[in-house]
Amino acid sequence: MPENEFARYHASMNALSRFSAQSLQEFCIQVFTHFDVASEDAETAAKVLISSDLRGIDSHGIARLFGYAGMLKEGRIKARPDVRVVHESPSTATVDGDNGLGLIVGPQANELAMQKAAAVGSGWVSVRNSNHYGIAGYYVLRALERDMIGWSMTNATSWVTPLWAAERRLGTNPIAIAFPGLREPPIVIDLATSVIAYGKIEIARRNGESIPPDWAVDESGKPTTNPDDVPAAGALAPLGTDRERGGHKGYCLSSMVDLLTGVLSGANWGPFVPPFWPRDEGQATRVGEGVGHFFGAMRIDGFGPPEEFKQRVDDWITTLRASKPAEGTDGPLIPGDPEREAEQDRGPNGIPLTLPVVESLEKLARETGIPFGN
Amino acid sequence: MPENEFARYHASMNALSRFSAQSLQEFCIQVFTHFDVASEDAETAAKVLISSDLRGIDSHGIARLFGYAGMLKEGRIKARPDVRVVHESPSTATVDGDNGLGLIVGPQANELAMQKAAAVGSGWVSVRNSNHYGIAGYYVLRALERDMIGWSMTNATSWVTPLWAAERRLGTNPIAIAFPGLREPPIVIDLATSVIAYGKIEIARRNGESIPPDWAVDESGKPTTNPDDVPAAGALAPLGTDRERGGHKGYCLSSMVDLLTGVLSGANWGPFVPPFWPRDEGQATRVGEGVGHFFGAMRIDGFGPPEEFKQRVDDWITTLRASKPAEGTDGPLIPGDPEREAEQDRGPNGIPLTLPVVESLEKLARETGIPFGN
Fold first, then answer.
1. Which of B55, B83, B268, B291 is 20 to 30 A from B308 in CA distance terms?
2. CATH topology of domain A1-80+337-374
């Protein structure tokens, strides 16, 4: 973020009430348990959600608890899924999530990838019949704890157009991967393959602002500066935006994620990936089961002595951080810096929540009888 | 490519002399053999080079033969490297290329990844002490032949700046991956993680044209439209260009490739990756050995029945191809379409070579006594 954007963001966050991560996590656990999630799974799911808030990715954290709870209440998602391996080799597997909460299915499939890595050096698990799994970055941090390089991808509701199309055909399909340092904190990469997240369109709409012409197209596939065009019948652009600036590359990366998560596992893919809260499931076309994920784990000692690798990661970090800064900037960040900075603030000082999120949690509290507060 | 660019490109190619792929490949084999490369390795290296020309990636094909030959002649690259595994697990390995021709080291390491995949479902090989390995796409096509999903990455001479830096710190670091169809041709993804290839800067310089402000920065890190600024003291921008349009994502992807290829294997990384033809090796700082690559292979039947997967890939292709076209375009391509189109032309009709390339090959012919012609 440019510094003024940082400043504006921090100012807006500082105006909000803060809630301790621990109390929010406890509330999540109780809500999940209330809706019949087994207690160990409820703890994991809450941890995934709150890790998103701690890392500053507000869109994927407790802001979604109300939605997850609603789907559990309506029986659209199973509270006690029978997550099972449907096909495997020593280093690969396909997992069926049994339409469970993605926050439960994801960690189990990721655990399987790490177990396979422990046994034969690497593990790769494609998942079908799951749901929204939180932030991709959560999973790769687990691999770091075991001296592994973790990979995580998921497909998602289609909001993104391929280059030269005028239609939503692919999700914002993120890729995450992490590398441990020795004395330096880890390098944590977690990026959506669209030019921006859909949330930025919503912010512009709320504020009545126009958007840069590089972010989205209207229903004819032409660049638009009107954020209302996107939910109307437009789409987000792929990373790179257009041909001249590499929009075909963003399209390729989003396709890669869709193929590894949806097509490989037998989940839905492309335009058929269900929305976060599928209200019209009866009518929608389905080409597979649920949402798809892909997890990978590689033991560092499958490639060489971990300490030596981590020392080289430290050297890489030091070198890149010392790059000559572009005029008007403080110089490059290391991937993972912004999320760690958020965590260093929010861990001790609490997580700022917007009023609509607080209200949704208060509503949940009234419905379930579980006390909520900071 | 927009259609007018296609048309201009095809017109320029049609004006050139064409040479049969078979005769060019035979010439390469003889040249490599002349410089003491073992005959089987010479065949492989020639095949890698010519696959680039056949697929329309002129910059990485026979245009570089003169350079490869020169480095062999000067003893900068070993003709008969002792490529060896320095560390391994059932599904992972680090390979030392013994400063061999990348066109020999790459195929051997890729073969090891596929052998490990055959044995335990997947194989992942990080490589150090190699050199330029041709096109990333060549390697993933080999995996397709064995019903595997192939991955290939390499680091490269630093021409790219991180977001918010004003310095060349990373290579154009490509990522390739391929997925087989059943009746449809395969999806082949092969992309550099910079916004454009350096070749586009050279073309603009030759033609005296300005460049779009999204492609590169000058020595202060500001966008430039003067292509001469790049070789002077500027750098290419990462995919996404700036913060607003996702330049941090291109920087993250380029970093990911550098970490998996250079840092994981113990090769050089970031600004220390040697140039294609290192003329000043004595003075340059080195943090590892040679150039780094990373290869992966996953058996499709490690995830499920291959026929079913391929049928789903066909459905994905058909669906994406049928997307509503953006106004003024013929609609989206499928990754791999442009390269296959080139191959369908160049296979039967021959490979067009520019005059400087023909002259470099004629010079090689004179030096070696190996006849060259079409």
1. B55
2. Hypothetical Oxidoreductase Yiak; Chain: A, domain 1 (1.10.1530)
